[in-house]
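Hey, I'm writing a tutorial for new members on how sequence and structure tokens pair up, and I'd like a real worked example in the thread rather than a made-up one. If someone can provide the structure for the chain below, I'll link this post from the tutorial.
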Amino acid sequence: MSEAAETTATAENEDAQTNVKANDNDTRTGPVFSVRNLWKVFGPKADRVPGDPEHAALSQTELREKTGCTAAVRDVSFDVHKGEVFVVMGLSGSGKSTLVRCLTRLIEPTAGTLEFNGEDVISMGKDALRELRRHRASMVFQNFGLLPHRSVLDNVAYGLEIQGMAKAVRRERAAEMVAKVGLEGLGERRPGQLSGGQQQRVGLARALAVDPQVLLFDEPFSALDPLIRRDMQEEVIRLHREEGRTMIFITHDLSEALRLGDRIALMRDGEIVQLGTPEEIVANPADDYVRDFVRDVPREQVISVRRAMRPADAAEAATGTEITPETLVSDAIATVARTGEHCRVVEDGHVRGVVDHASLLTVVAGLDKDSAGEDGMEREVAAV
């Protein structure tokens, strides 16, 4: 290689490495994504719908009949915080996939504000938007989108190739990502030689290779068999635990949402009907729609003992196994069954309360005050 070519390659490599390492120095404390009053309307004169109170108040069917428009995302607001797994879930047609595509303007929003680390995404030009998609927010789709004629390593390195990283360096980094997602030794295979789960791991490794600040998942595992799907969920959990990377995950599967999400936004007809932690949504559904959604969820596997504990008397405060307020009810039940006595709920060295078989079973049965309210609890007890 000539001296000039070597200098150019070195400069390109340093630029690419700067992009890869940019997140290490990110000290921002505000939301990663901040979304306010976001709309995406499809149809004729779509931009008139968000600003018209009469049209904005119509149901999906009424809006379509009156204007010919469909509001796929309707007046949505939320923040995504650094390091969290933010899940958007809902049934088919609820608007969740349209919403995640609006975040990087793969679909152009009709109205509202959208910021990424304080920067106005709506006003970004082509170069800034390209930089956002290539370096800062990577998407993992349900359709793996792998290049069939390229090896696993070259598929993983594709984003780095676009960035201009030298071949040897990008393949080295691709090999690291291949190993990270459990495909070590398969780097020279073609996608057609891999199982569906392995192909999705390649897609995940490709997204990780550019070291984005945010990973966006659009129902990535919905086409996989149940056991492979569970393995991939475990992979996402492991990667998040090891890296603490911000993730936005789209799914129609409630069990997947409850397993992965720090917070969940539940959508219906383009709107967010409830946003909260898995525990909040299961324990305190916002309406009948959410209540039906979570009806069959094993409450003891989602709700913590913080909602089950009662005040401790002097004797109870000095005895019993210590557990934290975040301990799941299912784990507390196992401890109570094993020891035959109550558990003390201890936080910061202080006894906050106790749980016993009666208080824990109240949560399992859905008779706790948080889930039913005083009147609801009385009605359910009377029904029993």
